[in-house]
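tool_call: predict_structure(chain=1)
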Amino acid sequence: MSFALLFLGVHLRFHFQKYFSVTVKLSCLSAKGSVANLTAERFKFVIFFYVKKFSSQFLQKEDLCIEKGKLVWVVYCDMMCLDYDGNLLDACIIALLAALKNVQLPSVSISVETGLAEVDMNQKNQLNIRKHPVATSFAIFDDTIFIVDPTAEEETLASGMATIVVDEEDRLCAVHKPGGSGASGEKLQDCIVRAQTRHREVYKLLSEVMKSVTPSTDGKQEAPKKASLYK
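tool_result:
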């Protein structure tokens, strides 16, 4: 089983053009040796590209609109990998989903008199998360053995990698197969079924974590006390 320790911060700003920004950074101490035969910069680019691609399924930009033609929310998600031992892509997708589900937007209106934004911190709403995609990665050995949630060592030794992304309705959202060993249709179907099972496991744990986060009176939130995504 892989392990990845991530720090993820979400902050929002007012703007006239709505967009959703995601950045991924690797600390100099996070990677242990070779990372899936890629340099750190190349690896960071691959993670960033696919996290941004999959994250577009979480929410629609139209949901960030405060008042059409005047003001919108801009969402910045910054991820820093503090420790890494494989399967960082899956961890990034789960962390991003959890962070977005935890966001609370204050009520904002445009003053008729001044034309300026007025923020009411006493009224807050959660982001409208349209889908809950979860990625499941597999390390391929000899075209026949598929190991789910590979460690960094297994990624290095594998002859290929594959990532399956499904949502809460068992719909296939994406398949990422970056070269390497081939995979038969039967094997890919097995991976999809395993990804659907893992989605239910992850989504259940994620729901427990979100329920355990209780907003405090000062607008901040306490960390989860009991539930954990990784046991």
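agent: The two ends are 11 Å apart (CA to CA). Proceeding to next step.
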